[in-house]
Amino acid sequence: xxxxxxxxxxxxxxxxxxxxxxxxLLPQVARDFDVSEAAAGRLISGxxxxxxxxxxxxxxxxxxxxxxxxxxxxxxxxVAGNMTSALAPGYRxxxxxxxxxxxxxxxxxxxxxxxARRMVAPERASRAxxxxxxxxxxxxxxxxxxxxxxxxxxxWRATFWAITGVGVVAAAAIAVLVPGWAGRPGPxxxxxxxxxAQLRSLHSRQVLLTLTATALGYGGMFGAFSYxxxxxxxxxxxxDTDVAWLLVVYGSGLVVGNIAGGxxxxxxxxxxxxxxxxxxxxxxxxxxxxxxxxVAAVLLTFLLGVSGFASVPGLITRVTDAAHGxxxxxxxxxxxxxxxxxxxxxxxxxxxxxxxxxxxxxxxGAGIVLAGLLTMAWAAREPGSxxxxxxxxxxxx
Length: 397
Prior knowledge:
The longest helix is centred in the middle third of the chain and has 30 residues, at 125-154. The chain is globular. Helix content is 79%, strand content 0%. The chain is mainly α.
């Protein structure tokens, strides 16, 4: 495994911590800044909204710059945002720190996925992307417990200082370990770095279908997951304290799904995507039907993580291949996932508000993912489906 992939995974780990850790710290932050729970919640929603918008805007602004220095600079921006949060004298400065940190999120994973796949042979492209995203999945497993542990012992500011330290190490690792040639555009990509050319590349039917499948796949999973704690406590009968280890079970499934999905996508990408989306649909339906059984709920929660993240590496490489490798495509994939997350969470909440019960988001999520599966099936049958990987040579050091 190239050392540069490990450096990118470390950057993804730090950025993932920033995204997830705040959930376990909201009560402390709300008390310290004397704000309502809803205001504290905007530290999460504000981050997600900034990711959705910033992924496109920052990528467009940096598209013609060398990718390795851009990645390093993005992690430095991430460090600045978390340092701002750690030092924040009030709520508004804290929110500003979250926004600054979020600006790097989408572009880092978008550009990082392009750089990661350049470090390996073409037939291992999806696995390379999976390695980079392994940092994000591990952060999902450890983020909330990590934040809660440090926050309870030394206060929530200590958590953000710890994340700042991870960012400093990640920036140094990327600067040293990521080879400069991996950040250069591949054959035929140079003329596509101008913004008009990138926007034209996004207009293809294959790109739009893949982005739609991304939004629906993510939206169904996270729309259901947003309310999974209520399902555990109100339907299955778990206690509030059980929710933390159940989230670790889910996060462990994400790690497994990410690795397995990357390997499967390198063998047959479209088939792997169809299977993973079908499995996610079935898992959500089964969890809705069997949520009353603690044993079934635990097993299906793990499978929810596996099937939910198995499509991620393949979707990223598919959309970038369909768009001929333009950086904006990878960033658009991140934006699509965040738009899907917001839509899924809204629909799941609406189902609960309509009195349909705490399993309703699972059925709503299954319906959304099913729409994503049908979209992916359409894309796979359309003319112009991108090949498994572009056969570009891998430069040597």
